[in-house]
What we know:
Layout: H1 11-18, H2 21-44, H3 48-54, H4 59-66
Helix pairs in contact: 3-4
Amino acid sequence: MNKNPHIGSSLDDLLEEEGTLEEINLIAAKRVIAWQISKAMEEKKLNKAAMAKEMNTSRSSLESAVRPQ
């Protein structure tokens, strides 16, 4: 019989214990959105300026959204 209290716990449980779960989820969501924007730019063959215009935002705002962290 295994008496390890961490067996069966999830990564989410660990991150929640450390108080970083919300921050990690936010970072993950931002990276998914950045990836989706990059893929849409590739599919439409748009540069950042053209994509920003299509999204009704500035190129610098788009740049900060898709810049790798």
